[in-house]
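User: Second chain of the day. Same drill as before.
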Amino acid sequence: MTEISRRKSDHLRIVTEGRGAQDRLDSGFDQVRFLHQALPDLDMDAVDTGTRFLGRSLGAPLLISAMTGGPEEAERINLHIAEACAHHRIALSVGSQRIAVEAGGNGGLGASLRARAPQIPILGNIGAVQLNYGFGVAQAQRAVDMIQADALILHLNPLQEAIQEGGDRNFAALLPRIEELATSLPVPLGVKEVGAGLSAPVARRLIDAGVTILDVAGAGGTSWARVEAERGPDRLQALAVPFHDWGIPTTASLRAIAPMMGPDRVLVGSGGVRHGLDAARAIRLGADLVGQAARALPAARHSAEALSDHLSDVVTQLRIAMFCTGSGDLAALRRAPLLVPGPGGQWSQATGMETGDAGL
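Assistant: Same format as last time:
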């Protein structure tokens, strides 16, 4: 096993064991409260959770992200995810394909993935910083081709690389390289953080560079500073402690970035998404899709059936939230009235809530 493969396997183990979660900073989802509709005027069975993404029809606005380990484990986990996502018609984003691209094989990320899930969007994934370490259009195209991806996601992880022993820390002049990919690849280009959130200024620069998919991947879920520290000696663990809860909460990222997204762009809300109610909250704050990784990982490691059960619960929870807000479809959910937080932990209705703008 190479050092990179060993590190990826460690990541899976640490996250699955719950040792990578942020302690004191949450995603902010609990501060988003819907106005309950006691008379929803809907048949719950008729609630439509469907949407479209990258020209494909989805059963729900969900995206499952994978964190790959060594090639054998990566293949098993990703096939479980592909089967479950295909069953529910949910999008799939693979974990980093760096190992596969550098090794010349597929690292467990090959044609079998598309064969298991021929109808759903599949997103490739490489680290943006690798564009400063020898990766370019050819390597990005290889990542797309090996899984017949509908889009390629570049992940931004400066905090993780800063903590990681031997991390790749040269993030200088990356934006022109990102823009080159956006104009050269035949598929849409996306960018995501990995748990510290995207700010509005960074989002604007990425949009101006031609990026069409943004995944905020905000703080409140997995802390990659903590994950990397868990792999290291005591001194590294002590060094990382102040950064365990670093980042922009997911809801703050969504609120800031949603207004700048147009009809040809896709905003993904991820980071600390626990269940279908959080998914509904993310949609209400402007997300087009909602991503989940760590919460789905234990089931994905176990079996496709276990992950399918997990996804079924998430979709059902989303449907319940839509039903109890009187939202027959996702467009209506985006206008659902919210309660407004007040002093002393009280919540209230507000004048003008019928516009759906209260609380934003």
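The CA atoms of residues 133 and 145 lie 21 Å apart.

User: Great, on to the next one.
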